[in-house]
């Protein structure tokens, strides 16, 4: 069986979901395939997220990622909602969880980095759950 497909979703697919996609590719590529998407798109990924991800991990999200719609995704096994503060988008899947993260857009670097750190922790935890077959994907 191939690795499950994970979609990190939010409304605009410009910040938290993009960070999660990048960290999923960085820390869990051997466990799952990472995607991100939203119900709307933005012309570019949040520039604070781009800058801080380059500084912290050496990841340049702008070279490998762009804002995508839910309809751009292949069939997904696991959906992770970032925490939308509105009705989160719906995407069919075998398993769904909501990380309930505050949007750091417009906040200072310290708040942004706290969200990035939490996404890293969550991505690694999700990878462990998938690896240990604690998520039923049937």
UniProtKB/TrEMBL annotation:
SMART domains on file: LMWPc
Gene Ontology terms describing biological process: response to arsenic-containing substance
Keyword Flavoprotein: no
Stated name of the protein: Arsenate reductase ArsC
InterPro entries: Ptyr_pPase (IPR023485), Ptyr_pPase_sf (IPR036196)
Keyword set, alphabetical order: Arsenical resistance
Segments forming domain Phosphotyrosine protein phosphatase I: 4-129
Pfam families in the cross-refs: LMWPc (PF01451)
Originating organism: Acetobacterium paludosum
């Amino acid at each position: 069986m191939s690795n499950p497909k994970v979609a990190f979703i939010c409304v605009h697919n410009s910040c938290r979901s993009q960070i999660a996609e990048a960290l999923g590719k960085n820390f869990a590529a051997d466990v799952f395939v990472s995607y991100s998407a939203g119900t709307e798109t933005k012309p570019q990924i949040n520039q604070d997220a781009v800058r801080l991800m380059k500084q912290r991990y050496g990841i340049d999200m702008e070279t490998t990622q762009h804002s995508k719609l839910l309809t751009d995704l292949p069939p997904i096994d696991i959906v992770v909602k970032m925490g939308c503060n509105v009705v989160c988008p719906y995407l069919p899947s075998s398993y769904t969880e909501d990380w309930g993260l505050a949007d750091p857009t417009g906040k200072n670097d310290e708040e942004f980095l706290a969200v990035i750190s939490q996404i890293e922790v969550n991505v690694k935890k999700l990878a462990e759950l998938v690896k240990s077959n604690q998520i039923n994907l049937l």
